[in-house]
Amino acid sequence: MSWKPELDEMERRAALARQMGGADSVAFHHGRGKLTVRERIELLTDPDGFQETGVLAGSPQWEGNDLADLTPANSVVGVAKINGRKVAVQGDDFTIRGGSADGMIGQKSNWAIRHAYMNRIPYIRLLDATGGSVRHFETIGRTYVVGPEVGGGSGVDDLLWYVPIVNVVLGSVAGAPAVIAVDGHFNVMVRGTSQLFVGGPPVVRASRGLEISKEELGGEQVHVYENGVVQNLAETEAEAMQQARRFLSYLPQNVWEMSPRSEPTDDPERREEGLLSLIPRNIRRIYNPRKLLDWVLDRDSFFEIQPHWGKARITGLARVDGYPVGVMINNPRENGGSTNKGTSEKIMRMIQLCDTFHLPLIYFCDEPGFSVGPADERSGIIRSGARLMLTSRLSQMPYLVFITRQAYGVAGGLQYRRGHALYRRYAWPSAHWGSMHIEGGVTAAYRREIREADDPEAKRMEIEARLNEIRSPLRTAHAFGIEDMIDPRETRPLLVDFVRDAQSYIAANLGPTSRIPYLP
């Protein structure tokens, strides 16, 4: 006797589930310029690479013993491939109860987290959910005490140390899902259609009496440009998926594996003449730091992370001789390249990412020091700076520094080595450094001499000129205060040499890192 009737019935029920919230609900969703959860997964993953789990999970409607209809769970989960490698995917289905808790079925919403943990593969969450709903209280006939299991709970906390986590914000995300959006290694939202908030406009109206739109409360202007909660911004959902795919292409499947190397297509010995004149002799003039990245990294390999926030430091992922690396460079076009509170947090995220997944971190240093002034003090720059110092000191990823121009004060000192981790440092002839700038330090150190001079301004300029004569980095090199002075055109060959050497260090130190406390 064949089991084909049962198989036919399984397929009928699966077809009901794939209708999601129904034709009208899907059409409404499309009318707002948004894709359905299955369309999103198709964009995210390799062709024909998604194996769905739990498609039959849902709330059935019965006619006697026959299934009349099925409202599927509002979460789609499964395993897919991205760039040929397996990932666990969870996508919220907003067409069913807005993705809220009363549309969940059993533990389906946590399946992808557990699967990623057990199989040591990346976890991707496509967020389009409103979190808890008071309607759920009526459904279950009671209220409940919120615990750590809400929104994934400790499962995500554990995953952070072991596998890459990517969160893509694709709609109005509130409550516990909003917290999930920042509980990962990379997040991105879509211009005009993504919002993120602890409580949406109705909650704000009820608690504060304030009328506010979703965009004003939690759109990209708030979270990408103003507070840096979300790292990257995409113009379309398709672009958001491409950013997620590209981010993962630089990372290993887990902390026990090496990052994937791409076939090199760029000359490892490339020496760009433009590097020789990139840094202006006049220290008050700025330059384009992105040119430096173009000239020393593998061509077209730089993927910038958080370009709209903490802009005094450019950060991202790239390849050198095909090997993935983390990259940082001061941006003199923003706040003079000086590190403020927001920039400190941005740097810490990059260090944490590289340390967790054993990526070499390359830093092109032009650091004038921590940002100073009343606004910076009120922001808590001292606390942020202390956390950044601790994060840097505890990190163990391979670390390569090129001092291209400045390295002043405590922030400038963060280019120094840590412990016994692999480390190298080079300086360009344009470099200069110290505990503080000569121009600002003279007034403090020679206050009395300047005040008592017949011409205080002339005396100040005289002292500055005298000190500038001994600022040459070559004098520091004579004292072995800097290991190697180099021709800027040698930067790429030395960079390639370091990254190649780093591979054996990384291979010998794979596994979880536990020295840096993870901070979203």
Shape: elongated
Question: What is the count of β-strands?
Answer: 18
Beta fraction of the residues? 15-25%
Quickly name the level 1 CATH class of the largest domain: Alpha Beta
Secondary structure topology:
Blueprint: H1 4-18, H2 23-31, H3 37-44, E1 51-53, E2 58-63, E3 66-72, E4 75-82, E5 85-92, H4 111-119, E6 123-127, H5 134-140, H6 154-159, E7 165-169, E8 172-174, H7 176-180, E9 186-190, E10 195-197, H8 201-208, H9 214-218, H10 220-226, E11 232-234, H11 237-249, H12 289-296, E12 303-304, E13 313-320, E14 323-330, H13 341-357, E15 361-367, H14 374-379, H15 381-394, E16 399-408, H16 409-412, E17 423-427, E18 432-434, H17 438-445, H18 447-452, H19 456-468, H20 473-478, H21 491-508
Parallel strand pairs: 5-6, 6-7, 7-9, 8-10, 9-11, 14-15, 15-16, 16-17, 16-18
Antiparallel strand pairs: 1-4, 2-3, 4-5, 12-13, 13-14
Key features?
520 residues; alpha/beta; 2-enoyl-CoA Hydratase, Chain A, domain 1; 3 domains; 7-stranded mixed beta sheet; 19% strand
Can you walk me through this structure?
- This protein is an alpha/beta fold and 520 residues long.
- The protein folds into 3 domains: 4-249, 2-enoyl-CoA Hydratase, Chain A, domain 1; 273-431 and 482-508, 2-enoyl-CoA Hydratase, Chain A, domain 1 (Alpha-Beta Complex); 436-472, no CATH class.
- It is built from 21 helices and 18 strands.
- It has helices at 4-18, 23-31, 37-44, 111-119, 134-140, 154-159, 176-180, 201-208, 214-218, 220-226, 237-249, 289-296, 341-357, 374-379, 381-394, 409-412, 438-445, 447-452, 456-468, 473-478, 491-508; strands at residues 51-53, 58-63, 66-72, 75-82, 85-92, 123-127, 165-169, 172-174, 186-190, 195-197, 232-234, 303-304, 313-320, 323-330, 361-367, 399-408, 423-427, 432-434.
- The strands form 4 sheets. A 7-stranded mixed β-sheet has the order 1-4-5-6-7-9-11, with helices on both faces.
- Strand 16, helix 16 (409-412) and strand 17 form a beta-alpha-beta unit.
- Helix 13 (341-357) packs parallel to helix 15 (381-394) and helix 17 (438-445) packs across helix 19.
- The longest helix has 18 residues, at 491-508.
- The radius of gyration is 27 Å and the shape is elongated.
- The protein starts with a helix and ends in a 12-residue tail after the last helix.
- The model has no long low-confidence stretch (mean pLDDT 88).
